[in-house]
Amino acid sequence: MESNLMKQEISFLENKEQEINVKKDEVISLDLIDITGASLNLFLQKNSVCNLRIFYENAKNDLVLHANLVENATLNIYFADFSSGDSTLSSNVILLGDEAKSTFKFSSLVTKNDTKKYSISFSHIGEKTESNLEGYSVNCDTSKLKVEGISHIEKDSIKSKASQKIKAILFDETSSAIANPILKIDCDDIEASHACAIGSLNDEHLFYLLSRGIALEDAKKLITFGYLNPIVNYFDGKTKEELEALIKKGI
Amino acid sequence: MDTLEIKDLHVSVEDKEILKGLSLTIHKGEKVALLGPNGHGKSTLLNAIMGNPRYKVTKGEILLNGENVLEMKVDERSRKGLFLAFQNPVEIPGVISADFYKNALQEHTDKRISLYQFYKVLDNASKEVKIPFEMFNRALNDGFSGGEKKRNEILQMMLLNPKIAMLDEIDSGLDVDAINIVSECINKVYEEQKTGFLIISHYARLFELIKPTRSAVIINGKVVLEGGPEIYQKIDKEGYEWIKDELNISLENENEKAMNQVSIGVCATKEIIKNGK
Ligand SMILES: Nc1ncnc2c1ncn2[C@@H]1O[C@H](COP(=O)(O)OP(=O)(O)OP(=O)(O)O)[C@@H](O)[C@H]1O
Ligand SMILES: [Mg+2]
Asked: Is the minimum distance from the CB of B38 to ligand 1 under 6 angstroms?
């Protein structure tokens, strides 16, 4: 079978603003590592698939992302934020064509006095479009996380689906997380859901692990690892190894 | 001989006293059937023994082979040989079962367990409880059916090999085949290790399969009656009314009216009455 899978690591060295056009029927993977003050514009043509993997590894990061999806295009964004220092990410995906789909999954480990702000929005315009936001975060020390998830289903976007799920564990009382899901729905015939859970480690979960002989520190590590690790599956190669190492080190 | 002693135990949940001076002793080689109407403190007892922080021990003692269990942390209690199979096992997202079991098993032995050894042990245990091995690559209890969760508790018991195993309604929600599987596992562990068992159930069916050596009945937060297997058999036929008459006790808690109708075969209905109040 012919494979049209393309891989690309995007570099912003010279150009702070990049445009990428994913051609009809093309399937591509893009990797973004440590971005400061850049913006990326994506255009996904008919039936194309783009897997965008963003890894904030080191210092301060900020990225602005815009994507336009036409008919039956799919954009999957996997975002791992393990950086130290403040960072922001703003993503704005427009599901223009019918049956366009987009997923945004993130995992972040927020420590020290860092502040992380994400604004993730989907505009549903075409019919039968789908968006899905799923995020996990572990917050320590005096760090702050602010996530704004916006799903806007416009008037003619019938039979569309939007879901948002955000979970944050606060390890220290001094850390904080705010998840602000906004569902703007101007169409009747749709499915939308959102769920946010922010809290300290679940006592019942901890008790269960402890009752099997696992020490408190290890039990916390297992739970944290469980929160952060699933994102690893979407990365590969060197990035994947680095990510795994960071998660192990971080917890 | 391994012995768990509970003496004059008082336990409160959210400032409400549930156990009110409960005493009970279990030795290695005994299988104790623990009965009692809904809401009278059976699960509370097991949780207090295991050290669930929501259950506050206000008075009394728990001793394992003479050692003060109440001074031990939860994980230490497990390592000393106590095991609790939960009435409602939790699902823990992201925590892969196999990783967790390996950690737990490692905590219970001094020698380093290789991955190969671990997988062999897990593979054997998974065959005993008839859960496909692959399911342990998933998050703990994630997407498991009610019955699978219960069998998963038994699997962990088999891995950890406790001195005293406490099983909280291990048979609830199990189909006929699964009850047979679970009781075979319990019997096997008992044959091989002479583990002490404290087994809560509302159904004689499980007891008929595992043949408890003794029965104990909790009413109003106390063990009010102890004796041989004939007690659970009588409760199965006649409910709890005769105990109250014979011992001249009345039910103290607010569920009294519902409880008066109690027989051990109708647990689900009682739950509804209780919750409906
Ligand atoms: N975590 C908890 N929070 C609040 N109340 C609790 C908690 N656990 C138990 N209780 C209360 O303590 C009482 C005893 O409950 P327990 O679970 O020990 O009963 P049980 O004998 O195991 O009943 P069942 O047969 O229904 O399982 C009940 O009134 C119950 O509502
Ligand atoms: Mg109970």
From this structure: yes
DSSP summary character for residue A230: G
Q: Which of A83, A84, A133 is nearest to A106 (CA)?
A: A133
CB-nearest to B94 from A204, A219, A230 is: A230
pLDDT for A245: 87
Contact B90 A229 (CB under 8 A): no
CB B148, CB B131: distance < 8 Å: yes
pLDDT digits over B21-42, tens only? 999 999 999 999 999 999 999 9
- A222 shares contact with chain B (CB less than 8 Å): yes
**Residue A157 CB partners (closer than 8 Å, separation 6+):** A95, A124, A125, A126, A127, A129, A187, A190
Contact A214 B103 (CB under 8 A): yes
Task: Measure the CA–CA gap between B124 and B215, rounded to whole angstroms.
Answer: 32
Domain map (residue ranges) of chain A: 2-201
**Is B120 close to ligand 1, i.e. is its CB under 6 Å away?**
no
Is the Cβ–Cβ distance between A97 and A69 less than 8 Å?
yes
Domains of chain B from N-terminus onward: 3-87+164-275 (3.40.50.300)
